[in-house]
Amino acid sequence: MTNLEDYGGGAPADSDVLVVTTNDVPGFRVDRVIGEVFGLTVRSRHLGTQIGASFKSMLGGELKGLTKTLVESRNQAMERLVEQVRARGGNAVLAMRFDVTEAADLGTEICAYGTAVVISPVS
Predict the structure, then answer these.
(1) How far is 114 from 13, CA to CA, in rounded Å?
(2) Which of 10, 18, 42, 99 could form a disulfide with 92 if both were Cys (CB 3.0 to 4.6 A apart)?
(3) Which residues form the signal peptide (predicted)?
């Protein structure tokens, strides 16, 4: 049986920091814009996973080991993003995006970024 968190992720529903990919949150107003925040991780390639992925790519199909690694990396970048928002006094991130870059054949850089804000419900 597959663990849901192995192949997907995102901010937990009970988090004190709301993370959205939209530019606003319906029913809320932006009280203060704090500015850009990001969370970053760089992951090296695991030799065993790389060799297995090379064989699998010849045959076709999902590269599950690499998928799990990328999910873990994105989740770590998101956690670091949320830590930055908390440290700056925000309670939300608007326009969150991911950027993934190959880092000079050493690994993969994953950056989660967005705009830290303070929001409150519209009365």
Answers:
(1) 18
(2) 18
(3) none
Over the stretch 55-64, which tens digit does the pLDDT of each residue have? Answer: 555 566 777 7
Spans of all domains in the chain: 15-121
Is 28 buried (19+), middle (13-18) or exposed (0-12) by CB count in 10 A? middle
* Mean predicted lDDT score pLDDT of the chain: 84
The CATH superfamily assigned to 15-121 is Hypothetical protein apc22750. Chain B (3.30.110.70)
> 3-class SS at 35?
strand
User: CA 16 from chain center: how many Å?
Assistant: 16
Segment holding 77, helix H or strand E: helix 64-87
Cα 76 to chain centroid, rounded: 7
